[in-house]
Write a structure and sequence with these properties.
heterodimer, A: about 500 residues, elongated, B: about 180 residues, mainly alpha, 7 helices
Chain lengths: ~500, ~180
């Protein structure tokens, strides 16, 4: 026999996660923002030490010493002062600065004066597609700090319409405070070449330097170091070649979902539901049906606790267990089923007869409805006196060859029908305390529910509102603003008649 | 202040694959696993914790992964109904293909509702007791037992009899070697 614990560990060892990665920089950035520890711009000894420790973890070794004398190259005061990201928390944030899809220039900078100025000059302001951009970087130490050293890598970030769309960390070697830099013109998501267009570019260079000495308590104390991440002047660069409208929308906002023209959108679903809504109680007579709006993404608070639209076993005692007060008489799906008239139940298992259930769902609406990939939802709910007492999930009749995908897009077109054949193997009474209740002998109403999850697509329906998903006080642009995924979930409840349980 | 940052960086450098693998077992989706680990790191290291060792921090992150996974569904109040919305997982190309058994386990896990799946993983991967799982996920112990019962029944239907199925409700940890605790 198999040990489940061993199987799970084997699964973890061989999980298909080859292409999955975890971004320390991204996590650090979010943590720092969460902590709201915006320190002053000045680099103090304490945070400076912390910052360089963190820096060393990313770039062990590999710095190029610069000196104040290097500033004698005539560049002093020649351009804008380089903004810099300094202090431990900002250094952490700096690792993620210019991450794909972000708008880092919307964030606050910490302007550091007195350490160094950082200039980059493009060798080619016009570049062919799929080539490299070349530049010369110059660090001009101000002389206010000692032993300034540049890390042996720099990060080239290219922007399109304010969004970071290319980000490449490249090796640099400073000679006389100047280093040539080359970076490929590829995007930072999948490495595809940047299409033709007008872009902006900056280079981020980390430097470390000695902090003013503090009285040493021991002879072997390590000198304190500070770090800064210098951000260069902004350069314009043009890439020749074909230009496209919104060339990065797929990366920034996701692949547009193309729904049929008659797709039931969340907005339409809300309107239709409201038009057919009723407070009239449902008597659950055979063949009757009610539609429930079980979740609304624009009105989430209503559903976050004690969901008034929930109907099912009163799990954990948090649900009333009775059919929702409000529902709708809205013809969406015609659900029919052939059920046994009686079940013999023993310890939750159905004995005798091996009953077969056939079920059919037809779309009687004018809309295409999603979520119907292969078979109807075959869950069965038993109701007594208006309350759910048991549930069952039927087993597809063909165990060796599970049903394949019938609809590649999961859509049930208007007028289309989906069938399924199942075996009814068990019936679980609703749990009370720590055990399922026994379904007593008697006659019960049988209900089936078909759930429809209707969303607006990742980017396919621009008429929907936008959400920024930013924490209070967080700078806009630190997270790419995504179109809202508007969605609703509706349930079509159908009474399939009654059944007698022995 | 950089101590946590150093620890987080070290944890990811040394245990990234293990954490991603664990998250995959919890959720069954490589992309979601990546998000779960990332979110779990943020959750774990957002709170100052003195003397956080690597073993401890990994344990925190693992717990956070399971909790975040369940919270994701709890927030949306959809977990009761997602069972029938579950579809066969999308095939993910991997350079380390599953063995038949791993594929079966992955498929069987994929059919479990989120809370049931989380309970099964915490019980049989992390060796947590029922009360510990309940505390971890914010559920009643009875609910955990129910989920484990449902989960084991569903898994045994797919995988056949499982050697350790009887340990589902055991209060004793089924640890047979120390290495399990830090995998």
């Amino acid at each position: 026999m198999t040990r489940l614990s061993d199987s799970l560990r084997g699964l973890a060892d061989r999980a298909p996660i080859d292409h999955a990665t975890v971004s320390v920089a991204g996590a650090a950035r979010r943590i720092q923002r969460g902590r709201r520890l915006r320190a002053a711009a000045n680099v103090t000894a304490g945070v400076g030490v912390a910052a360089v420790v963190a820096l060393a973890a990313i770039h062990p070794g590999g710095t190029t010493p610069l000196s104040a004398a290097d500033s004698a190259d005539g560049r002093e005061g020649a351009g804008a002062t380089a903004p810099a990201i300094a202090s431990a928390e900002d250094a952490a944030a700096g690792w993620g600065w210019g991450a794909c899809g972000t708008r880092p220039f919307d964030d606050d900078f910490v302007d550091v004066s007195g350490t160094a100025e950082f200039f980059v000059e493009l060798t080619n302001t016009v570049a062919e597609p799929a080539t490299v951009v070349s530049a010369n970087a110059t660090i001009v130490p101000s002389g206010s700090v000692d032993d300034i050293s540049a890390a042996d890598t720099a990060t080239v970030v290219i922007f399109w319409d304010g969004y970071a769309v290319a980000r490449e960390t490249v090796p640099v070697e400073y000679v006389d405070a100047t280093a040539p830099i080359e970076a490929p013109l590829i995007n930072c998501w999948d490495g595809a070449e940047l299409p033709g267009g007008d872009y902006e570019m900056v280079v981020v260079q980390e430097v470390s330097f000695a902090l003013p000495e503090e009285p040493a308590e021991t002879a072997d104390v390590v000198p304190a170091l500070g770090t800064e991440q210098l951000v260069s002047n902004v350069m314009s660069i043009q890439i020749t070649g074909d230009r496209y409208d919104n060339p990065f929308d797929v990366y920034l906002f996701g692949q547009p979902v193309e729904y049929p023209d008659d797709y039931l959108t969340p907005a339409t679903a809300r309107a239709e539901y409201a038009a057919h809504a009723t407070l009239e109680p449902w008597n659950m007579a055979p063949g009757t049906q009610r539609v429930v709006m079980s979740y609304d993404g624009l009105n989430a608070e209503q559903f976050t606790s004690g969901n008034p639209a929930y109907f099912g076993c009163p799990w954990e005692g948090t649900m009333a267990g009775t059919f929702p007060q409000e529902s709708a008489k809205w013809d969406l799906l015609a659900v029919t089923a052939r059920l046994p008239q009686r079940l013999s139940l023993s310890y939750g298992w159905i004995v005798d007869d091996n009953p077969e259930v056939s079920m059919s769902v037809s779309n009687v609406s004018e809309f295409s409805l999603p979520g119907f990939w292969s078979e109807p939802n075959s869950s069965i709910t038993l109701v007594k006196d208006g309350k759910v007492v048991g549930e069952s999930y039927l087993t597809s009749i063909n165990r060796s060859e599970p049903a394949g995908l019938t609809n590649e897009d999961g859509m049930l077109a208007s007028g289309a029908t989906l069938d399924g054949r199942y075996l009814w193997r068990d019936l679980t009474g609703c749990w009370t305390g720590d055990a399922p209740s026994t379904v007593e002998s008697g006659t019960y109403t049988v209900l089936n529910v078909q759930s429809l999850y209707l969303d607006s697509g990742a980017a396919g329906m621009p008429a929907e509102p936008y959400l920024s998903d930013l924490a209070e006080g967080e700078a806009r642009g630190s997270i790419a603003v995504m179109p809202a995924m508007d969605y609703v979930e509706i349930q079509v409840w159908t009474s399939l008649g009654t059944i007698t349980v022995n | 202040m950089a101590e946590w940052l150093d620890e987080m960086e070290r944890l990811v450098r040394e245990r990234e694959k293990a954490l991603l693998g664990y998250a995959y077992v919890v959720c069954g989706d490589a992309s979601l696993a990546q998000d779960l680990v990332q979110d779990a790191l943020v959750k774990t290291f957002s709170r100052p914790r003195a003397g956080l060792s690597q073993a401890k921090s990994e344990a925190y992150v693992r717990r956070a992964i399971a909790t975040l996974y369940v919270d994701h569904y709890r927030r949306q109040q959809r977990w009761q109904r997602v069972q029938h919305l579950f579809r066969p997982p999308v095939e993910v190309e991997s350079t380390t293909p599953f063995s038949d058994l791993s594929a079966d386990v992955a498929t069987a896990l994929g059919d479990l509702p989120p809370r049931v799946r989380a309970c099964v993983v915490l019980r049989f991967f992390d060796d947590l007791t029922v009360p510990d799982i309940a505390a971890q996920l914010g559920l009643a112990p009875g609910s955990v037992k129910r989920y484990l019962s449902d989960g084991m029944r569903a898994l045994e239907l797919r995988l056949g009899n499982l050697d350790d199925a009887d340990h589902a409700f055991s209060e004793e940890l089924a640890v047979t070697d120390h290495e399990r605790k830090i995998r």
